[in-house]
Design goal:
The protein is mostly helical. It folds into 2 domains: about 90 residues, Winged helix-like DNA-binding domain superfamily/Winged helix DNA-binding domain (Arc Repressor Mutant, subunit A); about 110 residues, Arc Repressor Mutant, subunit A. Helices cover about 55% and strands about 10% of the residues. The chain has 10 helices and 5 strands; from the N terminus they run H-H-H-E-E-H-H-H-E-H-H-E-E-H-H. The protein has a 3-stranded antiparallel sheet with strand order 3-5-4. It is globular.
């Protein structure tokens, strides 16, 4: 008679008990679901606490399940949590059906300002304007309305101007898990002059350094 590992059987049963619940929670959630939130929720429902490793293991099982080509969506890690996302092969059809291209598209000016904020945050409006060479009032207002950026406090420089930084919505919008997932600046060296003259960028970098030293 083959040896039966009772511990393994109990573990598999435990995992199966919550897998479908986790799938349902992620499916119904309006924003990415964090591991710690799942852990806190399920540990309130049971006398035998789950570990973070067990929850992460279940998420890996779910990800592998939906990686199968039979499914048009997959479990993605985005915005610091997990969310069901349409696979790339279906983006065109979904976008056309929902007519979201026009709604979601950012102007070049907004993208330029957003890129500066993302890489130099927290950053003042004057530094954004120095790099771009144009007034940034309108684009900052629009980025605030879209909740892609938010106020991060005030600088210690003269006049105490507002500082801006990106938001959780920014991560969700671009489908990245954290700011560490942004492309490295060296990958854009050949595009340096498209967001402002080189001397303006160097001036802004110096200004940013001065702000940092004052802080």
């Amino acid at each position: 008679m083959p040896f039966i590992n009772l511990t393994s059987i109990l573990y598999l049963c435990k995992v199966e008990d919550i897998q479908k619940n986790i799938e349902a929670i992620i499916f119904a959630a309006e924003s990415p679901v964090k591991v710690e939130d799942l852990l806190n929720y399920f540990n309130k429902q049971t006398e035998t606490p789950y570990t973070q490793e067990e929850i992460e293991g279940v998420l890996r099982v779910i990800a592998e399940k939906y990686a199968n080509e039979l499914f048009p969506f997959e479990l993605g890690e985005v915005g610091g949590g997990y969310q069901f996302l349409t696979k790339a092969d279906y983006h065109t059809a979904v976008s056309a059906f929902l007519n979201r291209n026009a709604v979601k598209r950012l102007t070049n000016a907004a993208l330029e300002s957003l890129a500066i904020i993302a890489y130099k945050q927290p950053v003042t409006k004057s530094i954004i304007e120095t790099i771009r060479g144009v007034n940034a009032d309108y684009t900052i207002q629009k980025l605030m309305e879209k909740e892609l950026i938010e106020i991060a406090g005030r600088s210690e420089e003269v006049g105490k101007p507002l500082l801006y930084k990106t938001t959780q919505q920014f991560l969700d919008y671009f489908g990245i898990n954290s700011l560490d997932d942004l492309p490295k600046l060296k990958e854009f060296e050949e595009l340096q002059n498209q967001i402002g003259e080189k001397e303006n960028i160097e001036t802004a970098n110096a200004a940013g350094t001065n702000v940092a030293e004052q802080n």
